[in-house]
Amino acid sequence: MVIKKLKLKYDTKSDSVNILAPAKINLFLHVTGKRPDGYHDLFSLMCCVSLYDSVTLNFDVANISVVCSHPQVPGDETNLAWRAAHLFLRQLQIDAGVEIILDKKIPVAAGLGGGSSDAAAVLLGLNHYHKNPFSEDELSALGLTLGADVPFFIFRKPAIAEGVGEKLKQFQQIKPLPVLLVYPQIYVSTASVYDNLNLGLTKCKQRLKKLFFDNEHSFDMIECLCNDLETVTMHRHSEVRKAQKALIHHGASGALMSGSGPTVFGLFTDNVKADHVKKELLKNSSWQVFHVAMLV
Ligand code: ATP
Predict the structure, then answer these.
(1) Catalytic site residue 7?
(2) In this predicted model, what pLDDT tens digit does every residue of 246-283 receive, in sequence order?
(3) If one looks up domain 16-170 in CATH, what number appears?
(4) pTM
(5) Is residue 79 within 8 Å of 120, Cβ to Cβ?
């Protein structure tokens, strides 16, 4: 496994830029309420992990286009990366094009934020190429119009996210552990998970009150693992619970669904153990398993 620190790595040739777009996990995700506009307010601890899409931007072209061979990813104006480029160039009021080549490694619609990360990478790459016309805050505000997770992928540090995800505060108390991501290869619609959430039945508030708010200085990552969306997704898709149970059964210190799922991550005390468990879990041929590092 290659463990890379997440510094922005621009591989800049004359007329192209290549950026790594990482996946994220939610170490806790508490849904605090529903807003009049239909969006939900969150209180979530987010961290990037070392599973990356590769985003290459070629600038010697007249129009915006996306090249991506992944069957679930649109190649047209609905792609978040395309929309990010369009937004950026419109905001800058320049008549330029960009070819966006996406090499997808992050599973799609998996709760790992792949589309949002690609969009943030496009914003960061364009900003870099155009010699930083926008501040990080301005880029985040642009990104927020594309998706609630985009500002986090511009921030790129472990963070507590509030609001719909746009209010970010760096969180430095994470001691990184080896992670296995288990993607059960089933389709989960984020919108329908939120639609079916009963805010009266969520569990994280109590747990976080006891273990986080009243104890912020002795943060215990394993104890705080909690996701209010888990019950909705697991109720509908038994495979997600099965993946979580398998991780715990094989010795993960903790296991939780990320975002609205279906990916479940397990935290391990050492890489050798995580590698061994990965081999065990891959015996289930319908799961994809990735051994990654938390990027802190
Ligand atoms: P969310 O919770 O925001 O839906 P996710 O991490 O679960 O995010 P994504 O991988 O971002 O899921 O994909 C969500 C949807 O967005 C998919 O249905 C996909 O077709 C669409 N999409 C648009 N652009 C992209 C992109 N660049 N990469 C992946 N999916 C994209």
Answers:
(1) no
(2) 999 999 999 999 999 999 999 999 999 999 999 999 99
(3) 3.30.230.10
(4) 0.94
(5) no
